[in-house]
User: Fold these one by one.
Assistant:
Number 1:
Amino acid sequence: MRQTIMRVQKARYRAAAALALVVAVPTLACTQDPGESPGIRKEAGVKVSMRDGIRLSTDLYFPPNAVEPVSTILIRTPYGKDREYPYDRTIRMFVEAGYAVAFQDTRGRYGSEGEFTVRFSDREDGYDMTTWLADQSWSNGKIATFGCSYLGETQITLAAERHRNHVAAIPMAPSAAYDIGGRPWTAFDGGAFELAQTAGWFMLGNSSDRLELYRGLPVVDVVADSGAVDTDYEDYASSTPISDYFRSLDFIHADDRFDVPALYVDSWYDFGVNETLQLFNQQRENALSARARDNQYVIVAPSTHCGWMRPANSRAGARDVGEWRLDFEDLYLRWYRYWLDGADTGITEMARVQYYLMGANEWKSVEAWPIPGTEFVPFYLRGEGNANTRMGDGTLSTMSPDDESSDVLVYDPADPVPSLGGQACCTGMSTGAGGYDQSEIEMREDVLVYTSDVLNDGIEVTGPLQALLYVSSDAPDTDFTIKLVDVYPDGTAYNIQEAARRMRFRDSLTESVLMVEGEVYEIRLDLHATSNYFGPGHRIRIEVSSSNFPRWSRNLNTGMDNHTTTEWVIATNTVHHSAAYPSRIILPVVR
C-alpha cells in the first residue's frame, strides 16, 4: 500500500488545466456558434482587465440591428466559453431578443490570464466585469446574469458584492458557492468527504477506470493518480469541513446581504438543492431593499444537476417522474424583459416557490419554504434485532418503540456499500445521479432495512428531512449512512434522499472527537430536502449502513485521518431502537 505525506500548504492553488464533467451535459458533435447566426455580431477574445491587471478573455455578442444602448447578460464560466453547449442556444435566444451577451472565461481558465482557484476571486472579478460592461458606450448600464452550476455560483458571489448595475440574476444550481458552516463547495456531508463528486470534478476528462481510481488509497492522491496535476483537490481532501482554508475563500456566508432580484432553479436529485432553498430564504431575509426582498423566486424540478438544460430524456436516473418540463426559455426571457426592459410580462405574479411533487408527478405552488403548516412526523425504526437485508424484521412505524433488540452491521472498508444514483454530479461514472432500484443493495448483510406497512392513503413528503439515530461501535471512528426509499407496489425501491455522519464530527464539524467503544451516541443526519408522494400501495423505507461508496470516502475505522492513511480495520456497528433510544427519521408531511 502506498503512503504519502499530506501537503499542508501551497503558495498558490490552481485547478486542473482541463476540468471534468461540468453539469453532466453530453457534448454535441456539432453546435453552431451564436456569432455565426445571421445579423449577430461577435467580438471574440476581448481582454478585460481586472483590478490587479489580470485580463480575462470575453466573447461579446451583439443583437442584429441593435439600437444602442442595450442591456447585457453576463455569463462567467471556468469550463471554456468556446465550448458553448448548452449555452449556444440560450445565447442566441438572448441576442435575438435584443440583449448583448458577455461570455467570459474565469480567471486562469482557457483564454484568461492568472491562476484559477475554486472560490478565490469570483467576487472581485465579477464586480470588475460588471463595472466594465456598464461603462461601455453601447451599454445602458443594466447587467443581468445567467448560468448553471459554477456559472450559477459566480452569480451569487457577485450578488453578495451588491453592484448597483447588477439588476437581475438567474442562478441555477448555485449551491456549491454557499457555505453556512460545514459544507463548503458541497464537498462534505455530516463531516464525510464527498469523494466521487469532488475528485471527479478535478480529474481530467472522463476515465473508464474512475471507480478503480476512487478505490485507491490514500484518498489525498486520488486525483493525482488520474493524471491531473496542480489542483486544489488535495486541500479539499485534507481539510476539515470548517477550516481556515475554506474560510479564506469566496463562499457565501450567513451574514452576506443582497440587493438583486433572483430566479433560482434547481432539482430534487441535485447535490445542493437544500442549499439553494436556503439561499432563496437568505436572499429575502438579508435583502437591503424591498425590491430585492419581494422578488426572490425558486423553481425545483425533479431532475438531476442542471438537468432542465438538457433536451429529451426527462427521467431522473432510471425513475420515471412524468413529463415535468416547463418552458424554461420563456421564463428566462420574461424575467429579463421585466427587469431589463420594464415590460409587463407577469413574471412577478408567479408563486415564490414552485416545486415538482415526484410520485404524484405534478407541479405545485406555495409562497414560502418550508411550506407553512408542514407537520414534521417521526417514523421510528423498529424490529427484533434482525433488520439486515430487506428480508429481515426491520419495520418503520409512527408508533414509538418499547424494549427491542438492537441491530448490528459489520462494516468492512474493503467491501463498502456501492453508491447507486442519489444526489451527485460530475463523478465520471456510468451510473449517474437520480433514482435507481435499490433492491440488490438491500440484500447486503451490512445494510439495515426498515420498511413501513403498505400505505392505504398517499402521503406527501415535502420539505427538509432529518434523522436522529442512537448508535455505537467497537471502532474509535466510523460512519453511519441513511437513505430514504420509496417502495413501489411491484417491489421496486427508488432512492429519494440520503445522508452521512462521520462519527468523529458527531458533535461539531470544527472538532474531531473519537468514540468510546460500546458507548451509545445520539447523532443527527441531515437528509437535505425533497418532495415525494408515497402513493397508496407504496411503502416508506429507510436503509441504514456505514458506507455509500464512492459518493462518500470510506471511513477506515482506525481513528487516524482518513485522507493520508492506507490501513483500515473492520467495525462492528450497532443501531439502537427502544424506549430509551428512539431512533427515527422525521418526515415533513404536507396534508
Number 2:
Amino acid sequence: MIVMINGAFGSGKTSAATKLQTLIPNSMIFDPEEIGYMLRNVIVDDVRMDVEKTDDFQDMELWKVLTVKVAREIRQKYNKHLIVPMTIYKSEQFSYIHRGLKELDADLFHFTLMTSMETLHERLLKRGDEPDGWTFKQAVKCLEAFHGARFEEYIQTDGQTTDDVVNFITSKVLSNRK
C-alpha cells in the first residue's frame, strides 16, 4: 500500500504522515523532498539545464524519475507500505509520480489537504517560516493548482486536528484496500 499526502506547504502533510505511520503496521515515511535536496546538492547550477535553474527542485526532471525509482527500490528491498508526504502541484510531475506509484502498488491512495489561505499562513508562521519566505510565496499558486479532479480526494483541514485528518485517512485506507 502507498498513501500519498499532498497539499500546500504548511497544510499538515508531515504531521499527518508521522502520526499515520504509527497506525499502519509495516509502514515507513518516504519523503521525495529528500531526493530533491540531494539533487540540488549534486546537480549544481552550472550543470543544470536552463529550465531547471529555478528555486524549485521539482523543475529538475530527474526528481520525478528518481522519486518513482527510489520508491520502487525501497518497496522491493524492505517490503514496507509507503507514506508519501509531498507538495506536488505541478500537473506533469504529479501525473508521472502518481502513475509510477500506481504501477508499483495497486493500493495507492491519494489525499490532498486543503485549507484556507488564512489558516495556511497561520500554520506557516507557527512553524517559524518567514512571511516573505519561499513557502509563503508558493501558497497562492499551490492552493489554486490543487483544484481539479486529479488531486482528489480532498480533506478540508480548517478547524481539524491532525488526529481528525489521520482518522479520516485511516478509515478510507483500511476500508478500501484491494
